[in-house]
Amino acid sequence: MITQLAEAAGEHELGWAAVLFGVVMGLLGLAVLILVIAAIISTLINPDTTAGGKLLWVILILWFPIVGAVAWFVVGRKRHLNRLLGIDKGKARHGGPPSVGNHSDNPSSQPDLGPGTGTA
Question: What pTM does this model have?
Answer without folding.
Answer: 0.57
